Amino acid sequence: MESREQNTIPAQAVGAIAPASGSGPVGPRAGSADMHARIVDALSKVCVCARSLGQYGGSHPLVEELVETAHQALAELLVVQPSLVVAVADAYLALDSFPIGDSNGCLASLAKILHERGVSEMKMTAGITHEEVMAFAETLSLSPEDMVSRGGMVSELRRREAVHVQVRSSVLPPESCMARDPADIYEGTLQLVEEAMNAVQFGLQIPVPEIRSAVADSFRSLIEDDSALLALAGIRSYDRYLCEHSVNVCILSMVLGKDLGLDSASSLELGISALLHDIGKVFVACEIVKKPSTLSEEEWLQIHRHPTEGARALAGLPDLPALASTIALEHHMRCDGTGYPLLPSGHTPHLLSRLVAIVDAYDALTTNRPYRERWTAQQAIAWMLYEGLEQFDRQLMARFASRARLYPVGSLIRLRKGDYAVVVGGNYLHPRTPTIRVVTGAHPIRLDENVVDLTTNTDPGLEIDAMAQPVEVLLPYGDKLIAA
């Protein structure tokens, strides 16, 4: 947010899986050439299902036939061997540390699909159903970016109730496994952002491996204890605003992503992309970025170009998530159709672009700038909840607000005297006292009194006692409650 205005993560193979030459035995547990052939046949048919689903869709008769064929092959295999556990590398599948022979290339294709979606191990067990094979194939047919937005393959399979198909998401890559002090991680990441911005400005190579390692360190630190890095994200320096803003957006995006249930691989991809979201600002003159007065129309045009320039700079870079270019392009697009750049009507920003847009606006509002003083965290979130409501993804904002214990529009609350009310609005100057509509209770009030501004309320019984239900459950019904 300019506060003056109101796709693929490599998975690591499990253990030390060394490629072997030729297509020899699949390992001691496979036992025979017949078993090897059954494994190759069953997994190849699963891969064909996924490809066909992506091409024809799940309702095509051919897809249904292919799924049934794959189900039969797996069911017969799992009668003989009740559990099949396969490790995933980037170009092959492995059983007991031996690559599975693959004469037709289908297994290499399946390995690539799984690898690009952050999977390091796959397990299938006896009892697998036709519906579970279909669910697995449909999951494999999702793009890596869609998989990230759904929380990773583990979450997607659980959502589809495919209990006899399990995958393990790759742990954070071992680029940097040593424990590091959060202050060192933060400072090192700042320096890498500076280096990346200089590289983009002068047409040099972005230090992607070092950035991946730094973000992995940050995420590891957040998993252990997020308080230290979050505290560092609150320390601001005017001279290093752009770099600090980028690091803060990276940290806060991963915290929110973790709250949403993203797996480690997806969180890492999000963190890298969020770190580079403002890279296009290097093409905007420094005096415009730091200007303390109102910008001219031409200066605004330069500001408005930075998402496009950033996306262009990041597109197609080796080892960089495809999501990075998407987020760079979309992080100033708003849910109400405002923002920039202007894209074709009907374009919907990626879910994680909408997440970064929230964090980007929050960090901008809580930072001192040449043209205004910072807001408190609660004031910033309250403004986004109540006065910028239509700009941001409503459910993501509700999750973000829950960390500040605020009350999103549409959430149900219990009042001290036992009545229930739904939040219908509020004021960023008074973030803990929203406007409510009393909707239930044993103490009826007149229709003209059922909307109460708690900033001016004098009745102790109408004070908020607690949130009545998890906000994400209630939000879909918020409009009906508000209209009640």
Structural summary, described in words:
Mean pLDDT is 81; it is low at 5-31 and 173-177. 48% of the residues lie in helices and 10% in strands. Strands 3-2-1-4-5 form a five-stranded antiparallel beta sheet. A five-stranded antiparallel beta sheet has the order 9-8-7-6-10. It folds into three domains: 33-169, no CATH class; 182-374, Hypothetical protein af1432; 405-483, no CATH class. A hairpin with a 4-residue loop joins strand 1 and strand 2. The protein contains 19 helices and ten strands. The chain is an alpha+beta fold.
Which regions have little confidence, pLDDT < 50, spanning 5+ residues? 5-31, 173-177
Report the β-strand fraction as a percent range.
5-15%
Largest sheet: 5 strands, antiparallel
**Shape label:** globular
Number of domain modules: 3
Estimate percent helicity.
Answer: 40-55%
Helical region count? 19
**Count of β-strands:** 10
| Strand/helix succession | HHEEEHEHHHEHHHHHHHHHHHEEEEEHH
What would you report as the Rg, rounded to the nearest angstrom? 26 Å
Q: Give the termini distance in whole angstroms.
A: 34 Å
Q: Fill in the CATH topology of the largest domain.
A: Hypothetical protein af1432
Strand order of the largest sheet: 3-2-1-4-5
Q: If classified by CATH, what would the architecture of the largest domain be?
A: Orthogonal Bundle
CATH superfamily of the largest domain: Hypothetical protein af1432
- The helix/strand class is alpha+beta
pLDDT averaged over residues: 81
Quick one: CATH class of the largest domain?
Answer: Mainly Alpha
